Each structure stands twice: as structure tokens, then as C-alpha cells.
Amino acid sequence: MQIEQIYTGSPLRNFSYLVHGGDGFAYVIDPFYSQQIVDALARSQLQLRAIINTHEHWDHTCGNAELRRHTGCEIWAHAGARHAIADIDRVLAQDDVIAFTPQQALKVLDTPGHTFAHVCLLAVEDGRPTAVFCGDTLFNAGVGNCRNGGDAETLARTIRDKFCSLPDDVRIYPGHEYWENNLRFTLSIEPHNQRAQELLMQVVQGELPCGTMALEREVNTFMRLETEDRVAAVAEFLRLRALRDKW
Ligand SMILES: [Fe+2]
């Protein structure tokens, strides 16, 4: 599976993603500037099949209308996003499969928390998960906020049930580039986290690592809850989320 991570340069530091399986057809996840996507499609000689919006917030959908006009592509999103996203052609639900080839597919994960109409896309190659496009659910070294239509307890369950069991080598492709702030927050909670200190130095120098689940387990304080007890873990997650909101 070919994945092009497109840094939009938007004020909110959004990422868009172009994903394709080598058959000339591509999908774009969360288009921000439509022209950026049109240029990327032309560079790789790809035809756009569909836009996939991870959720309904404007900064994940603002490229939709122009891109659809320009390419005639479809728009796919969570059923709960119908009120906010125009012209949805296909609704996406847990375990839906978007197949590129018999060996390559995106599997849909229903991931409420940041909003209640949020999906993530798990890339599966030769039967193994290899990457996850996580919108505003999981970030590099952090998680999404729940202030605009979300719920922190629901997000805690989504992170635990849909992400914590993913293998170490699964790559993380989030909706925003928030490395530096998130690492600084981790270090405010865990001042002696050496891996987070090292990464922060790297990031400040402009070197952005490609996140993986292994790295998240080392530097994402929301994934390092020091308890196996489910109720206590949710309480600790809520405490961290509330701290991060004020931080
Ligand atoms: Fe969002």
C-alpha cells in the first residue's frame, strides 16, 4: 500500500493522506486544501475514487466540495456525520472493508470520543495490520480533545479497545502534527521519561519521526496508565485529559 502523508501547512497543522494500492485509483483521507490533493494525484498519475473523512470537523472536510467538483469522486464518512458533511455517498461502519487488492485493504474502525461520528482506518496488508489513520482520536504522543461534540470517557474506551492491542510495528498517521506540544505534556507528567526527552530534542530540531505503536507505548502518557484495573484506568485517563485541556 502506498501512503503519501501530506503536511497541509494549515494553521491547525493538519495532515491529509493519499492512499493507493498500485492500480491507479486513490483515496484521500481528510483533504484540507483541494489543490494540494489535485497536484499530488497528478504527480503520481492517480485517479481519485473517494474522499474519506475521519470525522465531521471543518478542518477535516474543507477540501471536500472543490475536490468533488474537480474529480467527481465520492465522499465517505460515518453515518452520524450526515448533519455536518454534505453529499455523503457511502456511510462507513465498524469492520467495513475497503479493498485495494486481495492483499491490501483499509478496515474501518468506529472510534467515538473526539466526536461521535469518528472513524479510523486500519491498513491491513497480507492479513496483518501495518498502519492506522487515526484522525483526531490518537495523535503522536497524545490523544484528541473532547470539547467539540465529544466525550472523554468514550475516548478512553476507544483508545483501550481499538488501539492498545495493535502490534508494535503499526505506524500511526494522525490528523494533526502535534509532536512537540504532546511530548512536552508527557514530560510534564513524566519528567524522567528519557525516550520523550530524546524525541523532543529531535522534534525541536525539525526531524519528525514516523510514529509507531511501540513509540506510543513509550512516550504517549495516555497509553501509559499505571493500572490494569479498568475503572481506575478510565479515571486516570480522564484526569490526564482534564489536565491537558488546561495545560
Ligand atoms: Fe476534530
How many distinct domains?
Answer: 1
The CATH homologous superfamily is termed: Ribonuclease Z/Hydroxyacylglutathione hydrolase-like
Cα-to-Cα separation, first versus last residue: 38 Å
Question: What percent strand?
Answer: 25-35%
Number of helices: 7
Number of strands: 13
> What do we call the CATH topology?
Metallo-beta-lactamase, Chain A
How would you classify the helix and strand content by structural class?
A: alpha/beta
Low-confidence stretches: none
Major β-sheet, in short? Answer: 6 strands, mixed
* Biggest sheet strand line-up: 1-2-3-4-5-6
What does this structure look like?
- With 247 residues, this protein is α/β, with parallel strands linked by helices.
- It has one domain (2-178): Metallo-beta-lactamase, Chain A.
- It has seven helices and 13 strands.
- It has helices spanning 34-43, 64-71, 152-163, 179-189, 194-204, 213-219, 230-246, and strands at residues 2-7, 15-20, 25-29, 47-52, 74-78, 90-92, 97-101, 104-110, 119-125, 128-135, 138-139, 142-143, 171-174.
- A six-stranded mixed sheet has the order 1-2-3-4-5-6, with helices on one face.
- The longest helix has 17 residues, at 230-246.
- It starts with a strand and ends with a helix.
- The model has no long low-confidence stretch (mean pLDDT 96).
- Bound molecules: fe (ii) ion.
